Amino acid sequence: MRILLLVVSFFLILPSTMANEQIRGNYEVLNNQPKQHSFKKVIFEEFMNFGCPHCNNFRLLSAEMKQKYKDRVDFVDIPILFRGQNEAPLRLYYVAKSLGKAEEVKQAIFEARFKHNVDVFDPGIINYLARSLGIGEEYKQQAQKPEITKAIDAGHQKADLYNVTATPTIVIAGTLKMKIGDSMENFASSLPQTLDDLLQ
Prior knowledge:
Elements (H helix, E strand, L loop, with lengths): L1 H19 L6 E3 L12 E7 L4 H9 L1 H6 L4 E7 L8 H11 L3 H13 L8 H10 L3 H7 L3 H16 L7 E4 L3 E3 L5 H15 L2
Helix pairs in contact: 2-9, 4-5, 4-8, 6-7
C-alpha cells in the first residue's frame, strides 16, 4: 500500500514539475523545444511589412519592451513584401542599416504610411524620404548594390523557411514561432514572459 501511494504521488507531482519547466507563451515549436533559462542572449526575429497596420501597431506597443531587453535580446527586423509591392522601402531600410540609421528610417517609413497616408511602395516617395532623412546620396549610390538585393532575398528565404504567411510574425531563438491571438496588446504584453523563461 505504501509503495502504491509513492507511485501515485510521483505521477501527481510529475505534471506540475513539467509545467514549471515549460516556456510560457503561445507559440509553435519549429525545432527542438528549448529549456528554461538556457540562453545568455536570444535572437528575436520580426518579419514585418511597411504597409501592414498590425506591424505598425506592434512597433508602437513593443518599443518599451525592446528598450528593456536591448542588452540581452538581439532584435532583428526582417522586412518582407507582399505580391505587387515595390522593393524601394526595403532597399532604403537596408541602406540605412548599413549607415546605422535603420531605426530612424523604419520609423519614418511607418509614419509616412500610417500618419500621413502616403504610398511607401512608390519609389518616388522613398527617394523623397531618403533625401529628407539626409541619406539621399547614399541611397542613390547603394540601393541597387548586390549586397542590398542579397539582404532582401535572404529575408524572403527565411520567411519561406519559417512558413511566414502574415505580418508581424515573431520567431524567437530560431525555434519559437509566436502566435498573436486575438489581441495585439495582449500579445505584446505577454512576450516578456517568454523572454524571461528563455534567458539565464
